[in-house]
Amino acid sequence: MSHDQFFRSEQLPAPCIVDTGTIVNKQDMLRLLADLSRVRYVHMQDGILTSEGEGHVLEVFADPQRSTLIANHALYLNVYSFDYLELGKSAEQEPWFSLIQDDRQLRLIPLSNPMVEQNHHRLNVAALEAVVAEVLSANWDVQIDDEEHFSF
Known about the structure:
This protein is an alpha+beta fold. The protein has helices spanning about 5-10, 25-35, 115-150; strands at about 20-25, 40-45, 50-60, 70, 75-80, 85-90, 95-100, 105-110. The chain contains 3 helices and 8 strands. Strands 1-6-7-8-2-3-5-4 form an 8-stranded mixed sheet, covered by helices on one side. The longest helix is centred in the last third of the chain and has 37 residues, at about 115-150. The protein is elongated.
């Protein structure tokens, strides 16, 4: 058995992080941040508060050539702007996500719950399907009426 074969069979399992921990893998960072919607953000540089506010996460991406942008209540987050992400909970057990790069920290505190957002999304899909069904049904009724009026 070669060293490579031994190493592959003895690899450690992938990390399992529940509610608190440090994430360095960019794909994992993307997955966590993609669920965010409305957030409160706090930007610290060298331990000094430089900016804070509320906004909506519009895009989360991984591109070493693009910037993270926060303006006009919109957040465009590039995981390549940060070295790692710290995941934790406040004293009130509310989750937070801190994106860290050297002495810069961008803390994101969710203002929306993905479980509620998902239920709302399902409700919207069901409502849309009902409206489409109603429109199609009305269209068929109009076609039937037209056929009755023009038949000889």
